[in-house]
Write a structure and sequence with these properties.
The longest helix has 24 residues, at 164-187. The mean pLDDT is 94. α2 links the parallel β2 (29-36) and β3. The chain is an alpha/beta fold. Strands 3-2-1-4-5-6-7-8 form an eight-stranded mixed sheet, sandwiched between helices. It has helices spanning 14-26, 42-49, 67-79, 96-101, 122-128, 164-187, and strands at 3-9, 29-36, 54-56, 84-87, 106-110, 133-140, 150-157, 194-195. It contains six helices and eight strands; from the N terminus they run βαβαβαβαβαββαβ. The protein folds into two domains: 1-102, Rossmann fold, CATH 3.40.50.170; 108-196, Formyl transferase, N-terminal domain (Rossmann fold). α1 packs parallel to α6.
């Protein structure tokens, strides 16, 4: 049976577009819902252009756990019979309760080669530490931030004259290739680590 996928976004939705187009082309899963926690997320319009239903649920609390927010999300996921969640630039940490409920069915893409550079400002830290390579990682989401089982990684070189924007752009390009490929493997029940 074809898995139904919800994609969570907070911004431009470029990874969401890559995921949706891949699912529509290769038909390994069904892009069923795009959910945002920000009304002004540009990605919502991109999803509508791709004919994917959208929902916006904004949290009442700016930070920390908001159980009402998560209950509203859960209701939408149930309404759409979602099987898998892909976090794609979703800038909100989900509670342990929510993550536990979706254990083994929720993926995230992170802009570093985990386990290095967990959290925010990854590209700045990569530059500060004079790394020669960086990249992105697709992993399962667990209670511990950016620490779930790694499903796929892609590397990019860092050049001497690079700045944060140059690295961000190069990593994002790889994210758009890695995330769809990793999701495909995940939906097909394959456990091979994707390396790009």
């Amino acid at each position: 049976m074809t898995k139904k996928v919800a994609i969570f976004i907070s911004g431009s939705g470029s990874n969401m577009v890559a995921l949706v187009k891949s699912m529509q082309t290769l038909q390994f899963a069904l892009p069923t819902l795009v959910l945002s926690n920000k009304r002004d997320a540009i990605g919502l319009n991109k999803a509508k252009d791709l004919k994917i239903p959208t929902v916006c649920i904004e949290a009442e609390k700016l930070a920390g756990c908001d159980l009402n927010f998560e209950a509203a999300i859960q209701k939408e996921l149930e309404n759409f019979n979602i099987d898998i969640i892909c976090l794609a630039g979703f800038m909100r940490v989900l509670s342990s309760k929510f993550v536990d409920f979706w254990q083994g069915k929720i993926l995230n893409i992170h802009p570093s080669l985990l386990p290095k550079y967990i959290g925010l400002n990854t590209h700045e830290r990569v530059l500060e530490n004079h790394e020669e390579v960086t990249g992105c990682t697709v992993h399962e989401v667990t209670r511990k931030l950016d620490c779930g089982r790694i499903l796929g990684q892609a590397t990019v070189p860092i050049f001497p004259d690079d700045n944060v924007e140059a690295i961000k752009s190069r990593v994002l390009e790889k994210e758009h290739m890695l995330y769809p490929k990793t999701l495909e493997q995940f939906c097909l029940g394959r456990s091979d680590l994707i390396i790009m």
